[in-house]
Amino acid sequence: MAEEKATTEDQKKMEERSLSVFASEKKEDITALIIAFVLAALVIITLK
Amino acid sequence: MNEEKRSPVTLIIGLILLAYALVLRSQNAALAPEGLVALADFLKTGKTLGTQISVGLWSGIIISVVGIWNLAMPSMTSKFDKLVRAPMAGIGMIIALCYITRFYMEPLIKVWGKQAQPALGWDFSSIFGLNYILLGIILGIVWVNTIGIPAWMQAGVKTARLAMKTAVITLGTMYSITELKYLGGLSILMVASFVMGTAIFVLWLGKLAQIPRPLTGVLAAGLGVCGVSAAVAAAPVVKARGVDMAYSIGMLLLVGVVGLFIFPPVAKMVGMNELQFGAWAGTGILNSAQVAAAALIFDPHTIETLKVAEIFNITRILFLPFIVIMLAIWFAKGEEEAEGKVNVNLGKILVDKFPLFVLGFILMFAFSSTGVFTPKGVELHGKSFYSFKIDEKKEVRTRDLKKIQTMMESGAVTDAKVKAALEKLVADKQITSAEQIPLVLKAQDFTPDKDMKKVFQDADKKVQTKPETMEMMREYMMWLFAFGLIGLGMQITWTTIRQAGGKAAMIGAFTGVTKAVLSFFVCWLLIKGSI
């Protein structure tokens, strides 16, 4: 149990090392997806 | 984010960006824009003034508004505060650095390169590929290792990877189906052999050098697939500890950074084309961000190399689940041998750690394939957009049409389809259909005359068009890449690099170099043609 906890903490530390403002990589990916589609929508609305 | 309390930094940066854009826009001598405009003339950046103004205005307004908000309500507790308000000062600073590298440093170095050419005999800015992408990364590395990242900038720097991912998803709009099919087929073949080959090689080397299995496991994933993200994804299945990850990340960054600086000049020296270099970078460079950086350093003005490199990189990322499964089996086998038990939920890891942005890229490609970005009458063929609407401006010059006629009459064109396409070209005075394009271009094979070949190329160019929507998407994407790569530079600290020590570094360096050299020869010798 203690080992498992240590592994989780290590995992957290290493995600911190990968330097992101997001709590998880998945949240970062979803945000990137939303921004990309919002940008695309803005371009279509303003230029097409 | 207590350190942001009543800090005017965000507002100041926002106002600087806004003021810069307004000064450029005002054309008012009292505000001394002539100095800036004259400087733009000297640096030959006059054509970019429109972009500079619009990006400056929009970013300046948004950052200033957030700056006022931060001053008025300094307490930041919600998720929105953490993700938007806190990083804004750093985001503004990196945007300012993008301006400096793209509109001042790169053009200035280009001018110096040209001025020094007669004395040196070569243009150093072109030989070293000193464009804004490379300069941005160097600026980031120098900045973090000298000035350091102040507290108000830290959250902003951490948005760099988000910018890179958004840029890669946006890149999905730039491919045609033909291109993706061709590159996809080529990349699956190359990537499958290199990813699996590297991972197996590292596992074998790790056993040989008696490196702990968790460390060997993350190294195999990192060196085989796509660097840091792959190492992070593989960590739980091989029970990697923080220290294993620190070593691996340090080593992967070090090998990646070295590759980033070495790949482009080597490719230029041997005369690789965009397809060969894109394939090499996408296979041989370890980290996703550095693949994009190398492709943009090689060719920052068109995005062709970037497109090839990213397809290879994305194909590589798609192999991540297979590597994770392979490592899980390998690790479980080792544990069983040691009479231990492995208790990991492989399915959950695969779902949790699979990079969703890759799916975003595919989704964006599917979305753009519906033609939503292209104006009516515009079609994407190969890597260019075409409009076949009859227009005087698209017509081939009369004397060139006569040359084509004479060439056909001489019997030089032996292919019936090419001949028919040329006859149609002479009749219509311009290319009128997509099917005609490859045939007109193929006509070059029937003449040794360079001027005649140019006539066919010009006929093709005349019907090409650049849709405003695609140009805008491309511009957004380049800003995102430039932003992301300055931030990436700011994450490369000596401390991280120093962590890449011992046997792990030896294996990393040896594998990294082997992979780079092998993939170089495969791409250089076996990949022919262009996209």
Would you kindly provide a written description of the structure presented here, covering whatever features stand out?
The complex is a heterodimer of chains A (48) and B (531). Chain A is mainly alpha-helical. Helices cover 81% and strands 0% of the residues of chain A. Chain A has helices spanning 2-17, 25-47. The longest helix of chain A has 23 residues, at 25-47. The N and C termini of chain A lie far apart (58 Å). Mean pLDDT of chain B is 85; it is low at 28-32. With 531 residues, chain B is mainly alpha-helical. Chain B starts with 8 loop residues before the first helix and ends in a 5-residue tail after the last helix. In chain B, 47% of the residues are buried.
Q: Which tags fit this structure?
A:
heterodimer; A: 48 residues; mainly alpha; B: 531 residues; three-stranded antiparallel beta sheet; 73% helix; 2% strand; globular
Fraction in beta strands of chain B: under 5%
Percent of residues in helices of chain B: over 70%
Q: Which bin fits the share of residues in helices of chain A?
A: over 70%
How many strands appear in the DSSP assignment of chain B? 3
Overall average residue pLDDT of chain B: 85
Please identify the oligomeric state.
heterodimer
**Could you say which structural class the secondary elements and strand pairing of chain B correspond to?**
mainly alpha
- The rough form of chain B would be described as globular
Span from first to last CA of chain B? Answer: 48 Å
Strand order of the largest sheet of chain B: 1-2-3
How many beta-strand segments of chain A? 0
Distance between the termini of chain A: 58 Å
Q: Number of DSSP helices of chain A?
A: 2
Average pLDDT score of chain A: 73
Uncertain segments of chain B: 28-32
